[in-house]
Amino acid sequence: MSELLLELFSEEIPARMQVKAANQMLDNLKKAIEDLSISYDNAEFFVTPRRIALIIEGLPKFLPERIIERKGPKIDAKPEAIEGFLRSVGMKIEELSIIDNFYYAKKLEAVKPIGEILKQIIETMLTSFTWPKSMRSAQSKVKWIRPLRNILCIFDKNILPIEFSNLKANNISYGHRFMANASLNISSISDYKNKMEKNFVILSHLERQENIQKQIEKITKSLNLTPVVEQDLLNEVTGLVEYPNVLLGRIDQEFLELPKEVLITAMKVHQRYFYLEEKTGSLAPYFLTVANVDFKNNEQIIAGNEKVLRARLSDAKFFYKKDLKTPSSEGLARLTKMTFHHKLGNMFDKVNRIIALAEFVGNGLFDNNLIKKAALLCKIDLVSEMVGEFPELQGIMGKYYALHTKQEPEVALAIAEHYRPIDANDIGDTSLLGAIISIADKLDTIVGLWLAGEKPSSSKDPFALRRSALGIIKLINHHSLNLSLSELIERATRNYDSKVNIDEILVFFNDRLKYYLKGEDYRHDLIMASLNTNSDNIYQAISNLNELQEFVSLKEAEGFILAIKRILNILSESKSSLGLEINKDLFIPIEQDLFNKIFKTKATIQDMKGLVNIINQFFDEVMVNDPDPNIRQNRLNLLFNIAVLSKEIADFSLIEI
């Protein structure tokens, strides 16, 4: 059996793209091989900042002769189509087979060396592969994520002469850029792995990640500190190094007076450092950086990283002190010069709209004076020096500035929280005041941009309005807010000269609500049944869905759902014009009993399930399609009353049993 080794050696590939790209390349390669019924034992990829390596072991040397069958046109197809098929397969019509009125071409394909097939497969795979972003180097006409420098390709211990970009494959690879930057002759997969290891390249992304984690644990254990290792940052740092070396740096004491979030953002976002915490949870005066080299003396590397961080934190300290001296009135005045949207005015205009809408949202829920304060100050940090340097801290810095000016803690917290939920994992567990301001801010954005012609399309949502709507849904659900969406939207439009299509925005929210619920622990059919119409009250819709999901797990649910479905089927097959009007003079006793029961029943599952026995009794004793048209219509209308009542809960026709 033979083995294939392909290495694409390039300038540094962005860390976030490495694993996905390598995995996709391997999948494409495996699929092409499997489509030709070529067997293999093992396939895997390795990826580092400078290389993507694909390995396939246990390949045959030759593809045995086989019969290739190709389906052609129907036998009664146009002559031109049949002639075109004959030309494409190089056969005469009498040489074709006929199966189920279709022509088939069967040809014996001779034995082929696997190497020839792999060359074509790899070149096709590379040519068709697309990156999210790509560039074209001066030496090549091919677009790639970063300039390709070399292609290593070996099959059965021989060079497989694939050609791509301006390169022709060879048996050469390279060690670590700084610690062993020499060319290496490679003879096999095992030789490749051994030489990479000896030349300071850890090929496995997972192995490098585990290596980093072990080094972090060893360093922090000796200091009795807790490292904060977030998976996203760990993944990114792993993709930045081929030979990780975790080093401990120190933060100057003077910078510890800055808000914790400033230090964390400078370390984590800007420098890709891991930060450390004391056992008490306070920030420790240290950081961990992952270097791509390991020298005997690492002090110079540590000093360099400390210097870079010191410079960034010095700027932050200067900006912070300057911001603290800026009065709120000046910050609000600056908002008038910051455009929100060219059709919707400036940020101070938006603040005033948020105030009005937040008061409406929070009416009866929270102290109105605190609502107005939080709404007024929620955007003030956007014009601060600190947020200009660290945009990730918007809202958070607003909290510190509010506390500095002696605002109530609830107001300061709400300012920090009003951008939440910030991502798919954020459930919206904010304070109530934070939720009120957030809902007002997000709804103003949705309605305003809708009016400005910026509503999302099927493929584009440049202002992330879907995310804003999802955030509103999460906040309403988390805080059990009994709010009417149509009333909120109508109130939001009062801040603008134009009127928005409320029903259109309700459809938009309903789609987002379905999307949100699909990610939760709900059955798909129950979601569709309970949200078959646009839900004006999100909290009530979710409460109904919870009740419905709990009910369908009970024994009596099946009988109830079958009874309602039977009614809905009868009504759907009826050609009569249905209505709620009832003529009680036409009743027999069971109809009267059912009528009395219906009008004592509320539109809840708990109430309605009490109708099951009397509905079944009604069907046992009564023929709905009575010969008398008046009686028939009256009975259909009686059932229609039940259908209308059930529809307020859910569309039971959509529920699977």
Description:
It is a single chain. With 657 residues, the chain is α+β, with helices and mostly antiparallel strands. The chain has 5 domains: 2-63 and 114-198, 2-Layer Sandwich (Alpha-Beta Plaits), CATH 3.30.70; 66-109, Alpha-Beta Plaits (2-Layer Sandwich), CATH 3.30.70; 205-324, no CATH class; 329-545, Hypothetical protein af1432 (Orthogonal Bundle), CATH 1.10.3210; 554-654. It is built from 25 helices and 22 strands. The strands form 8 sheets. It has a 5-stranded antiparallel β-sheet, covered by helices on one side. A 4-stranded antiparallel β-sheet has the order 17-19-20-18, with helices on both faces. It has a 3-stranded antiparallel β-sheet with strand order 5-7-6, with helices on one face. Helix 11 (368-377) crosses helix 14 (409-417), helix 15 (432-451) packs antiparallel against helix 16 and helix 17 packs across helix 18 (502-518). The model has no long low-confidence stretch (mean pLDDT 93).
